[in-house]
Amino acid sequence: MDILKDSLPLFIPLIVVELGLAIIALIHVLKHPNYRFGNKIMWILIVLFIQIIGPIAYFVFGRGDEE
What we know:
mainly alpha
């Protein structure tokens, strides 16, 4: 239990960044109809279930042109 208490200050910023990134990516997926590849359902699943890498992958590979 002491290990958890000692490492909690390291995990809190990581959790906040991951949740923020996931929320921003999810909002972007829901608002924009254009993707470089894939569809809306695929990107929603990737963003939600592949923790910190999913939102980053969406912004790098999936985000289409802005309209």
